[in-house]
């Protein structure tokens, strides 16, 4: 399976970039050349120099350092929220798909209603309720992610439930949690992995969107969304701030999309040899 | 007096995949006479469907390609014709019906639309006349109330009806040759008999030749005049139907015959199973492709490939047992 | 088809009801007292109570719910913090959002479907390759970033379009000049989704047995593609159209913010920041109605293309 992965260029490039970003996020304190919060009013809005490779922002802060530190926020929120959504969403979906009947109706209808709303609008509403800090953002985006995982796992469980080995397990009297854990879950795993990877990108996008509106982690903490927004105010004189911060978001989301696509190409039997 | 309609000579169709070259058809030879039925038999994966698709040049290329051979239809080599010339033949002088009637019919158009499409395309009739003709053909294939059903969609018909609708499409321009690729495999036995009977009836009415591809010896016995036995992309035996059943010469043909139950069997007779599995077109055995599964295999069977040779007039076999030089070893 | 349409329209009503209920619940969950938000933190307790009475916040929740529904039917959306009736604000903002969303969806389909077809038909060629790269970028770029890039290039550097604002709706030139870049930025993203979906759907369909049957009838490849394959390929594209439209509406909020376009998105974000819950609620109601209508339209088109649906 690793050789197929390595042969797939998209997955490879995506994976490498994602790893690099992860690396940057983990080692931010050491990689960042300067203190991201340190202001220098004599050097406001300057372009690239030997001290500031990506220039400075409106407060004289080093853009490069802020971008490096910003990666932490994006990755933390992105992955944690997806894990949250995946855990609860998959659980809900599996329960609904396995038990059918009224339980299924209740759960899935509620999910459907939530899916009627655009993610961003839901996220905005929930953020307004919970407040905009790191932990609550994880919670918010996690909640927004629950319905899609629920729907995904529900669909898979429905098809799997009819498959022969599940029926066989039921016939020998295996208990429900055992069936769910040992028979159904391993088969969902592949699809969950693909979806999870792709949706980390979505989570990061949501976080960036919220930050851009001003509902993200609050300044002066550097987040890519914050930076882009601050950059818009000075777009005419100092376009690099917005452009570079936004580019970071783009590259990150892109890498997860490529990685997710690549994993899907590998694990989907229909596409092998296509 | 038999009239030759189609002659396939040394047809080779390969598929170029990431895992290597799949030689799906690697030396297929047979003859089809006007108004007669050729049965092609073999297990799945023997290259039967690919042979049929090659005749009409319906092979997806990439990854497939017809690399060698001649397909002479009324004397002209189909493989040398341009795409537009082949299109004039498809659905017109040569038509094809497929195994799965549900997926072989377009779900979003009425069966009338799909039948009339051929008629309008090849015969240039206007819509009304095409519709009248379509209704007549639906009647011919035994669909009741054709003037109503013509406006129905495939999902509204039963399996047997859908197959009849497909036959109606194939017949719409009175083809000289109908290629039927396992038309009854997906249907239950009673419907199977009806469909075979229908094909027989139409064949007699319009003097159509039929190429019947199947893995079922019973179907061969029922409809074929001549039989070609396919194995690993090659024709391994070719004879008329009586000879194939009474005097099968190739070990594979004999094995096929031995593996079906017969009315004349005593309780003691065991059904023979052909050991092993059909070889992978990416990786054929060396020498004679049947040798790993053959009861009679000798050492040279592993090294050399036998050619298709005439045993007597119009009976050809591809096996060293009947080869002049090597036969004494058996 | 007619029966199906009627059935579907009637089904939308309970759906709308449920969605509105969700809006009601979500807004009620938000912390903070709307009356306090309106009057400011230093208002006296009495004035807050009087306002709460007036806003109908002291009656039990279920009664509030019915009042909410009743008010909606009458078109009464309450008063915003600014003192103006919400309804007028919402209806002033609505055309800007509708214009933007509809243009973006149109661009998406008009560009996306042909691009997707060309990518599928010339699979693995250079055209296909560029299409795929373009789609991937379009799917990965945040809507606001694309907006900023376009704004920087065309409004600031080349000075072709106004930088911000929605323009004067009554003047066609002003309207279009302010609409172009926002619609383009959203539209390109929509194109990326549609192209990808079209390509993959068409590739799947071209593998189907009935396409082979069509070819075996001797019709030209063009007819096979456009008559037999495309209509079937469009089915999932249309079905997903509803989903994409919902995503688009979300992204439109970002685009409106970037271009300072006075649509529903700007209104909503402003409302949240000012804790103007009445406005927020109403904007969410309008969004819900738009979404339900879009879903309905999608289903109707779907039923039109696929004859199998009507018989279910």
Provide an overview of this structure.
- The complex is a heterotrimer of chains A (274), B (330) and C (312).
- Helices cover 75% and strands 0% of the residues of chain A.
- With 274 residues, chain A is an all-alpha fold.
- With 330 residues, chain B is of the alpha/beta class.
- Among the domains of chain B are: 104-174, no CATH class; 253-329, no CATH class.
- Chain B contains 11 helices and 12 strands.
- Chain B has helices spanning 48-55, 83-89, 101-104, 111-123, 127-140, 146-149, 159-171, 189-206, 217-223, 241-246, 251-258, and strands at 4-17, 20-33, 37-41, 64-73, 76-77, 94-97, 177-181, 209-214, 226-231, 234-240, 309-312, 315-317.
- In chain B, strands 6-7-8-3-9-10-12-11 form an 8-stranded mixed β-sheet, with helices on both faces. Chain B has a 4-stranded antiparallel β-sheet with strand order 2-1-4-5.
- Chain B is globular and about 70 Å long.
- The model of chain B has no long low-confidence stretch (mean pLDDT 88).
- In chain C, α8 (172-206) crosses α10 (221-258) and α11 runs antiparallel to α12.
- The mean pLDDT of chain C is 84.
- Chain C has 312 residues and is mainly alpha-helical.
- Chain C has helices at 2-29, 34-39, 45-55, 61-74, 86-121, 126-140, 143-157, 172-206, 209-216, 221-258, 264-273, 277-305.
- Classes of the chains: A mainly alpha (274), B alpha/beta (330), C mainly alpha (312).
CATH homologous superfamily title of the largest domain in chain C: MetI-like
- Biggest interface and residues each: A-C, 39 and 44 residues
In helices, the fraction of residues of chain C equals over 70%
Q: What CATH architecture of the largest domain in chain C would you give? A: Orthogonal Bundle
SS element count, helices of chain B? 11
* Oligomeric assembly: heterotrimer
Strand content of chain C: under 5%
Low-confidence stretches of chain B at least 5 residues in length (pLDDT < 50)? none
Counting helices, strands and paired strands, the structural category of chain C is: mainly alpha
How many structural domains can be distinguished in the coordinates of chain C?
2
Elements of chain B, N to C (H/E): EEEHEEHEHHHHHEHEHEEHHEE
* Average residue pLDDT of chain C: 84
The biggest beta sheet of chain C reads:
none
- By DSSP (H or I, 4+ residues per run), the number of helices of chain C equals 12
Which value, in Å, is the CA radius of gyration of chain B?
21 Å
Name the helicity range of chain B: 25-40%
């Amino acid at each position: 399976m690793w050789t197929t992965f390595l042969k797939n260029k998209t997955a490879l490039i995506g994976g490498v970039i994602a790893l690099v970003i992860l690396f940057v996020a983990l080692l931010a304190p050491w990689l960042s050349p300067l203190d991201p919060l340190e202001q220098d009013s004599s050097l406001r809005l300057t372009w690239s120099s030997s001290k500031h490779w990506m220039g400075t922002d409106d407060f004289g802060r080093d853009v490069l350092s802020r971008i490096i530190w910003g990666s932490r926020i994006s990755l933390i929120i992105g992955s944690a929220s997806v894990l949250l959504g995946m855990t609860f969403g998959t659980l809900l979906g599996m329960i609904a798909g396995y038990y059918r009947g009224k339980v299924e109706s209740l759960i899935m209808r509620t999910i459907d209603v939530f899916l009627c709303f655009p993610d961003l609008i839901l996220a905005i509403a929930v953020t307004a309720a919970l407040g905009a800090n790191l932990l609550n953002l994880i919670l918010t985006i996690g909640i927004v992610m629950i319905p899609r995982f629920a729907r995904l796992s529900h669909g898979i469980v429905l098809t799997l439930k009819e498959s022969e080995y599940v029926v066989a397990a039921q016939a020998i009297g295996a208990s429900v949690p055992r069936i769910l854990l040992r028979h159904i879950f391993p088969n969902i795993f592949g699809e969950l992995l693909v979806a999870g990877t792709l949706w980390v990108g979505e989570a990061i996008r949501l976080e960036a969107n919220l930050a851009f509106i001003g509902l993200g982690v609050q300044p002066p903490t550097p987040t890519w969304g914050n930076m882009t927004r601050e950059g818009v105010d000075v777009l005419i004189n100092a376009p690099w701030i917005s452009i570079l911060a936004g580019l970071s978001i783009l590259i990150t989301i892109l890498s997860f999309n490529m990685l997710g696509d690549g994993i899907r190409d590998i694990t989907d039997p229909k596409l092998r040899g296509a | 007096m038999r009239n030759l309609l189609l002659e396939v000579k040394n047809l080779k169709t390969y598929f170029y995949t990431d895992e290597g070259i799949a030689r799906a058809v690697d030396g297929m030879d047979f003859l089809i006479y006007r108004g007669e039925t050729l049965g092609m038999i073999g297990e799945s994966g023997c290259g039967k469907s690919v042979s049929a698709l090659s005749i009409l040049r319906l092979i997806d290329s990439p990854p497939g390609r017809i690399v060698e051979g001649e397909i002479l239809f009324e004397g002209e080599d189909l493989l040398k014709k341009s795409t537009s010339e082949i299109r004039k033949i498809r659905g017109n002088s040569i038509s094809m019906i497929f195994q799965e009637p549900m997926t072989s019919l377009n779900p979003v158009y009425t069966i009338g639309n799909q039948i009339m499409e051929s008629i309008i395309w090849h015969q240039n009739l206007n819509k009304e006349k095409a519709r009248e003709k379509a209704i007549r053909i639906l009647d011919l294939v035994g669909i009741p109330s054709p003037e109503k059903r013509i406006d129905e969609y495939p999902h509204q018909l039963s399996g047997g009806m859908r197959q009849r609708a497909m036959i109606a499409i194939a017949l719409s321009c009175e083809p000289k040759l109908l290629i039927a690729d396992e038309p009854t495999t997906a249907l239950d036995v009673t419907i199977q008999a009806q469909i075979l009977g229908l094909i027989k009836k139409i064949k007699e009415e319009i003097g159509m030749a039929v190429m019947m591809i199947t893995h079922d010896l019973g179907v061969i016995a029922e409809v074929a005049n001549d039989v070609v036995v396919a194995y690993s992309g090659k024709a391994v035996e070719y004879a008329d139907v009586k000879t194939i059943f009474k005097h099968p010469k190739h070990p594979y043909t004999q094995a096929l015959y031995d593996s079906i139950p017969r009315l004349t069997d005593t309780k003691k007779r065991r059904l023979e199973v052909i050991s092993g599995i059909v070889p992978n077109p990416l990786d054929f055995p060396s020498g004679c492709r049947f040798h790993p599964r053959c009861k009679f295999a000798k050492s040279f069977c592993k090294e050399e490939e036998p050619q298709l040779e005439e045993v007597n007039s119009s009976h050809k076999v591809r096996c060293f047992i009947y080869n002049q030089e090597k036969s004494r070893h058996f | 088809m007619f029966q199906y349409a009627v059935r579907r329209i009637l089904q939308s009503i309970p759906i709308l009801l449920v969605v509105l209920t969700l809006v009601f619940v979500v807004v009620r969950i938000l912390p903070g007292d709307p009356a306090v938000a309106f009057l400011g933190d230093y208002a006296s307790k009495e004035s807050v109570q009087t306002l709460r009475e007036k806003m109908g916040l002291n009656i039990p929740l279920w009664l509030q719910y019915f009042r909410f529904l009743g008010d909606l039917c009458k078109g009464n959306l309450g008063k915003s913090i600014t003192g103006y009736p919400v309804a007028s604000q919402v209806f002033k903002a609505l055309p800007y959002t509708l214009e933007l969303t509809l243009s973006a969806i149109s661009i998406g389909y008009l560009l996306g479907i042909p691009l997707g077809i060309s990518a599928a038909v010339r699979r693995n060629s250079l055209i296909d390759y560029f299409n795929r790269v373009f789609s991937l970028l379009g799917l990965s770029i945040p809507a606001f970033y694309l907006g900023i890039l376009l704004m920087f290039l065309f409004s600031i550097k080349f000075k072709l379009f106004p930088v911000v604002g929605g323009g004067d709706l009554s003047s066609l030139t002003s309207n279009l000049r302010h609409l172009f870049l926002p619609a383009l930025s959203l539209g390109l993203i929509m194109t990326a989704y549609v192209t990808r979906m079209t390509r993959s759907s068409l590739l799947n369909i071209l593998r189907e047995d009935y396409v082979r049957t069509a070819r075996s009838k001797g019709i030209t490849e063009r007819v096979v593609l456009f008559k037999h394959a495309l209509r079937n390929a469009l089915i999932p594209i249309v079905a997903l159209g509803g989903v994409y439209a919902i995503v688009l509406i979300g992204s439109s909020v970002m685009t409106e913010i970037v271009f300072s376009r006075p649509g529903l998105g700007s209104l909503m974000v402003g409302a949240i920041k000012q804790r103007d819950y009445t406005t927020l609620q109403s904007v969410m109601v309008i969004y819900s109605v738009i979404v339900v209508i879009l879903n309905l339209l999608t289903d109707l088109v779907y039923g039109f293309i696929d004859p199998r649906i009507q018989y279910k």
